């Protein structure tokens, strides 16, 4: 098992500095992505086209941050040829920033739907579902990043469990949206915007779970992608 001080005892202080820096840069990117999700949800709930435009514009910065962190990881791999837990750290960061970039993309998609709804006027239905799932996946992103920062596999496992709940909430929300559309065909256009936003939020939850799985891989050295919650819990407990 990896402890929290495992990356601070290298003979080369420069190597320690490089590892700390790339992790810090990943967490900075994570903070911005977390804000993107929150702002995107705000923009669609409040028909705020200005906020939506800001979210879309900031996506370029997130893309640039992903490239930068990936480049840092590549340089460390090439120059330091890390092994064991150091290698897992670099790999986990590289994978996590990819998931963060994808979360940023989903926030951008939600902002696009917010712009469409703002043009048509604030939607009267669907906001309850967006708010509920938006807040839920927002907490998941925050907790996944916190688990990574603290190397907390228990919190990572909890994020994975929350993803299961989000999937159930998403199914319920989709049925509600379909009901709104059948009851009032005039709402179909706006409800489609809501539907695509809900789909993006569900994907945010998926990527938050991925980040949590990277934490378990980093700490336990076990590749836990594509495993069920029961097996995931066994890996955490071992």
Question: How would you characterize this protein structure?
Answer:
It is a single chain. The protein has a single domain, classed as Phosphate transport system protein phou homolog 2, domain 2 (Methane Monooxygenase Hydroxylase, Chain G, domain 1, Up-down Bundle). The N and C termini lie close together (9 Å). It is flat and about 65 Å long. With 238 residues, the chain is an all-alpha fold. The mean pLDDT is 91. The protein has helices spanning 13-45, 49-80, 84-120, 127-150, 153-183, 188-220, 229-237. Helix 2 runs antiparallel to helix 3, helix 4 (127-150) runs antiparallel to helix 5 and helix 5 packs antiparallel against helix 6.
Q: State Rg.
A: 19 Å
Q: How many angstroms separate the termini? A: 9 Å
How large a portion of the residues is in β-strands, by DSSP E?
Answer: under 5%
DSSP helix fraction: over 70%
The profile of the biggest β sheet is:
none
Which segments are poorly predicted (pLDDT under 50) over 5 or more consecutive residues?
A: none
Number of separate helices: 7
Q: How many structural domains can be distinguished in the coordinates?
A: 1
Q: CATH homologous superfamily?
A: Phosphate transport system protein phou homolog 2, domain 2
Structural class: mainly alpha
Question: How does CATH name the architecture?
Answer: Up-down Bundle
Domain PhoU: 27-112, 132-215
Subcellular location: Cytoplasm
Pfam family, one: PhoU
Subunit structure: Homodimer.
């Amino acid at each position: 098992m990896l402890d929290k001080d495992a990356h601070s005892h290298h003979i080369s202080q420069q190597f320690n500095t490089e590892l700390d820096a790339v992790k810090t840069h990943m967490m900075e990117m994570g903070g911005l992505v977390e804000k993107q999700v929150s702002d995107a949800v705000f923009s669609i709930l409040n028909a705020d086209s200005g906020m939506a435009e800001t979210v879309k514009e900031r996506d370029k910065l997130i893309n640039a941050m992903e490239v930068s962190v990936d480049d840092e990881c590549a340089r460390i791999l090439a120059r330091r040829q890390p092994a064991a837990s150091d290698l897992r750290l670099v790999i986990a960061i590289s994978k996590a920033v990819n998931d963060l970039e994808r979360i940023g993309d989903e926030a951008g998609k939600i902002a696009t739907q917010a712009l469409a709804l703002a043009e048509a006027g604030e939607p009267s239905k669907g906001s309850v579902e967006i708010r509920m799932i938006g807040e839920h996946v927002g907490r998941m992103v925050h907790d996944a990043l916190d688990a990574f920062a603290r190397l907390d596999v228990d919190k990572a496992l909890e994020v994975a469990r929350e993803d299961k709940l989000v999937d159930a909430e998403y199914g319920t929300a989709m049925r509600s949206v379909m009901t709104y559309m059948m009851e009032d065909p005039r709402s179909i256009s706006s409800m489609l915007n809501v539907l695509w936003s809900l789909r993006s939020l569900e994907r945010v939850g998926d990527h938050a779970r991925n980040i949590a799985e990277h934490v378990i891989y980093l700490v336990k050295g076990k590749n836990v992608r594509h495993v069920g919650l029961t097996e995931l819990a066994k890996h955490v407990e071992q």
